[in-house]
Amino acid sequence: ASVMSDLEVKMTIKTLAQKGVAKRAIARQLKLSEGTVRYHLKRINSGASDGRARQRQSAEAVAEAIEHWRSSDHELDNTAALHDWLVAEHGYTGSLRSIQRYVARHYPPPKRRTRRRIETPPGAQAQVDWAHFPNVIVAGERTDLSVFDLKLSYSRMPVVLWSDSQRMTQWLACHNRAFERLGGVPAVLRVDNCKTAVARGAGPWGTLNATYQRYAEMIRFHIDPCLPREPRAKGKVERDIRTTRGVIDPTRQPWDSLEELQAASDECVARSVRRRRCPATGTSVLEAYEAERRFLAPLPPLPTPFDTVASRPVGGDCTVAFEARHYSVPFRFVGERVEVRGAGQRVEIFHRGERIADHPRHTAHRLVTDTNHYAGEATETHLPPMPLGRMGRCLEQLGELPVTQRPVDLYGAIAEALAR
To answer: What gap in Å lies between CA 8 and CA 21, rounded to an integer?
Structure first.
């Protein structure tokens, strides 16, 4: 009873007494004296009220301001916003709880918000979310795993993919694998507000992650972030994640590899889609998916998953700046804007959808070039760089050989070039 409020104690005594529990048993259960229990029951039965209930509420001093707020088309169900406004505009010193009590006593309860149940057309939408599974034993080591769940809203066809992280590259890789399994792309993906999808804010007013937005443009689907703290907005995939925790819980046994876990998961999903019914069609989920599949957009060439994307101009030296380094491209693209992607350990450079250069990423070198980018025939708009002279060719050969293997005649050729 020491951790219960007075009101909770009184209501507990009243409820137990109405159920026929003896006063001595109530006192023992609540760690009170039997006299205290009798006292409260006597007051409850006589209809006595606490004198504090008749005291003037502190919020009555700002009653006109509260009414002005209500008449200005503000919702009284958001008492926190009302309290902040009263503090800022009227110097109110009372607590938020005092405003809540005043509103509950003087105004009717807010209108109840109802929900619209919608069945989306085939191929129109899929819902996507991550779920976290800590302490999974894989290959003898305890690790944290994530499951990527994509579910078609019409047929309820799920794709469940296991991953060892929720990084951007894994986020896009799971999208690629999911689209490959479905054999097409839905028009809209309703996603949660994870950082790989929404960079700032949440819901329709949030700022989409630029990398994910670029990926969606390439695959040709629309990103639809759901409202924050509204799990029903993507209830189909939320339900699927609950099912995953109950049926394919990876913590129940150790796994030799992530591939073994994925294979076991795939078997469970295959059995499930044959057994479960699709609410939209009345057929099995698998049959509904086979009918929906023709409404999915054709699968385009899928890009290598990337975690960073940027648009850069090509400088006169045939290089683009990216991540504090310069990477070369073929000379014919000087003056053009190109798209640079950080794809794992590679830097891929594209021009109008065509990959024109590929370099190692995160190297110690700040200038990463390919000599082939400076060679070739002139175009209608670009001339190739001047070819290397005799000295340049000698220095290039010198740099390609280890010091211990450099022939003496190469040094002689350099001295001859200098003499000229």
So the answer is: 17
